[in-house]
Amino acid sequence: MNPIVYHIASGQAFFTGVALVILAALLSLREQRMPRRLMVLSFLLGVIAVAVSSTPLPWWLYGMAGLLTLVWLVLLFRRRGHRSAAFLLIAVWLVALLLEVPYHLTPGVKPVASRSLTVIGDSVTAGLGDKESETWPRILERLHGVSVQDLSHVGDTVAAARKQVAATEIDSPLVLLEIGGNDILGSTTTAQFEANLDGLLSELTSPGRQLVMLELPLPPFYHEFGRIQRELARKHGVKLVPKRVFLSIIAGGDATLDSIHLSQAGHQNMAEFVWQILGPAYSSE
């Protein structure tokens, strides 16, 4: 995978962008000509990096940061009062960093009562129908003795997964969701995505059951899909796995067949990563 694409889709571009904006604010406190030129370059690159990262922070925070940035630029142009604005700008972007950091930490799971797992996914999990390949749910089952109920299907959207879950009996105390990529790449509107994901998570929520969901890597300017996924994860108590986890798997040169769908080596890597996250739930049995 192209390093720039990885940097953007993983959400790391947000941290780079914020760092550059803060650097620009710090440089604006100096009067030398060269720092001013560096300030302009740093600011422009920072704003672009934040924008394309599709980081779904609350809109009120983006609005506040945008307003303070505008005030800072106006005062800087007038060469008066910009120092106070620069410090306020730095403060609000530091708040943004603090709000975003938790979404880049791998969640923990609690011990479960039975050695079973339900997986809901699309073709990333189901594979492309090659009978000779072994998908990562099957690898988990073989290597770790976990009974896996695999409800993944090629081409599934959240709506399709919701229908399948409604018609299927699920007893597993742990459910992993790898779903939503086809909604982003397809014609699903954000309103449809929100309604279907809310319905899917409502169907799955049950006392004593833990839900774990892979956060969706987002193309530039697809903030709303990420915002919906995060808000519904909070609403239903779902643990979100940072999008960098999946991207780190497909970034390998031999991990995919077409930059998205996993090769046999990719399925093996995916099984290892998933077990690192879910394995502690079964370790006490």
Tell me what you see in this structure.
By secondary structure, this protein is α/β, with parallel strands linked by helices. The protein has 2 domains: 3-104; 116-282, Rossmann fold, CATH 3.40.50. The protein has 13 helices and 5 strands. A 5-stranded parallel sheet has the order 2-1-3-4-5, sandwiched between helices. Helix 2 runs antiparallel to helix 3 and helix 8 (158-166) runs parallel beside helix 10. It is an enzyme of class 3 (hydrolase). GO terms for molecular function: carboxylesterase activity.
Q: Could you give a short description of this structure?
A:
With 285 residues, this protein is an alpha/beta fold.
For this entry, give a set of tags:
single chain; 285 residues; alpha/beta; Rossmann fold; 2 domains; 5-stranded parallel beta sheet; 5 strands
The averaged pLDDT comes out at 92
Query: What oligomeric arrangement do these chains adopt?
Result: single chain
CATH domain fold name of the largest domain? Rossmann fold
CATH architecture of the largest domain: 3-Layer(aba) Sandwich
Per DSSP E runs of 2 or more residues, the count of β-strands stands at: 5
> What is the rounded Rg?
22 Å
Looking at CATH, the homologous superfamily of the largest domain is: SGNH hydrolase
**Sequence stretches where pLDDT stays below 50 over 5 or more residues:** none
Please, how many domains? 2
